[in-house]
UniProtKB/TrEMBL annotation:
One of its GO terms (molecular function) is nucleotide binding. Catalyzes the reduction of 3'-oxosphinganine (3-ketodihydrosphingosine/KDS) to sphinganine (dihydrosphingosine/DHS), the second step of de novo sphingolipid biosynthesis. This is 3-dehydrosphinganine reductase. Pfam families: adh_short. It comes from the Eukaryota. Pathway: Sphingolipid metabolism; Lipid metabolism; sphingolipid metabolism. GO terms for cellular component: endoplasmic reticulum membrane. One of its GO terms (biological process) is sphingolipid biosynthetic process.
Length: 346
């Protein structure tokens, strides 16, 4: 056998080895859980009901210690009992609730201080902001107080919580130890793609994306310990949706008809699997991904090939969707006259 033949053989063996050994590990690696909560302490706001409670239950099932935060103590106690009952390993996992109004500037810092005291002096490893509310209404009929309050409940609850926890995670002695932390915000598809009737609400959710993008880049100054993510749920059949629908203008209900309601559990499953894939901006449905595709802007993509292709697709689809939505609004206005004459819902 000539020397070049044996070289060829070795070449083939090497290529075969690469395919057999390396490829599966690349696939395994890319499939690795990027949001492993087992044994971690996770603080979740707005977890006494709706999506937040479902997230808390599912992360308890995956072995996390859980701290839930909201205002109403009775509902916190009931939710905590359900969350505890879902623990993967009840003897090792710990559970706590903290009552706070997170729309208040001091509420978030106090929550983090209490969480650290309870967690044996350690900051929680993961903070997921889910507290929020929607007060839909036509713009000129909504009071400036409601608009400011929407900003406080949705945007500032995220902003102030980020401020409190990042001051812990990013302290000089705390970074560079290979200890990955996650800060997750919860926005809405209405923060990406808004419709008539959401003027008091959508801006507070869109501002979360801007904060998220800014922080994601700023975190690079500190190494790569802290990961930022934002979840954009579509409509969730939650107690919150029932409340907001009591005042929601009919035209808003009509326009959002295309967005299917998912249960809090379904929303939580999809959001968590997005985080496990390592996504930065997480959606929970295909329609949500289309809305995200119209709104990426300069945000870091989850997958440059897929997300860029979706951007192209959405720019074509949206030509027709925008015509349809605008013509629905015009037709509604024509049929029902000046909005001041509409029957009051609440
Ligand atoms: N429902 C929907 O269709 C959609 C909702 N979203 C967003 O997803 C998140 C979850 O929604 P959903 O499941 O409907 O939530 P719910 O309205 O059912 O529950 C909201 C939770 O947040 C808490 N909360 C509200 N205000 C405050 C506050 N000021 N301080 C502390 N906690 C507060 C509530 O408890 P308490 O009142 O006791 O404080 C409760 O635990 C929210 O951020 C919402 O804006 C996004 C897209 C669609
Ligand atoms: C190419 C793009 C196509 C997109 C078509 C979309 C049609 C409009 C859907 C708007 C849905 C808004 C749901 C908001 C839910 C929410 O956040 C509130 N329930 C507040 O709690």
């Amino acid at each position: 056998m000539a020397a070049s033949d044996s070289l060829n053989n070795w070449g083939i063996i090497t290529i075969a080895a690469v395919i057999v050994l390396v490829l599966p590990s690349i696939i395994m690696f890319s499939r690795a859980d990027k949001f492993d909560v087992k044994g971690k302490t996770v603080l979740i706001t707005g977890a006494s009901e709706g999506m937040g409670k479902s997230v808390a239950i599912q992360l308890a099932q995956k072995g996390a210690n859980i701290i839930i935060v909201s205002r109403n103590v009775g509902r916190l106690e009931e939710a905590l009992a359900e969350i505890k009952a879902s623990a993967a390993n009840p003897s090792n996992q710990r559970f706590q609730y903290i009552s706070a109004d997170l729309s208040e500037p001091d509420g978030n810092a106090r929550v983090i201080a209490e969480a650290i005291a309870w967690n044996k002096g350690q900051a929680p490893d993961i903070v997921w902001c889910i507290a929020g509310a929607a007060v839909p209404g036509l713009f000129i009929e909504t009071s400036p107080e409601i608009m400011r309050r929407q900003m406080e409940v949705n945007f500032f609850s995220c902003n102030d919580m980020a401020h409190a926890i990042l001051n812990e995670w990013l302290a000089p002695g705390s970074v560079g130890k290979g200890n990955t932390r996650h800060l997750v915000f919860t926005s809405s598809v209405a923060g990406l793609y808004t419709i008539a009737g959401y003027a008091p609400y959508s801006p507070s959710k869109a501002a979360i994306k801007s904060l998220s993008d800014t922080l994601a880049q700023e975190m690079l100054l500190y190494g790569d310990d802290v990961k930022i993510h934002t979840v954009f749920p579509g409509s969730i059949s939650s107690p919150g949706l029932e409340r907001e629908n009591k005042t929601k203008p009919e035209i808003t209900l009509l326009l959002e008809e295309a967005d299917k309601n998912y249960t809090p559990d379904e929303t939580a499953v999809a959001a968590i699997s997005g985080l496990e894939r390592g996504d930065y901006l997480v959606t929970v449905s295909f329609l949500g991904s289309l809305m995200r595709a119209t709104a990426w802007g300069p945000s870091t993509k989850n997958n440059y090939f897929v997300d860029t292709a979706m951007t192209w697709l959405s720019s074509i689809v949206n030509i027709f969707v925008a015509i349809d939505l605008n013509s629905k609004v015009k037709a509604y206005g024509k049929k029902h006259g000046h909005p001041s004459t509409y029957p009051k819902k609440a």
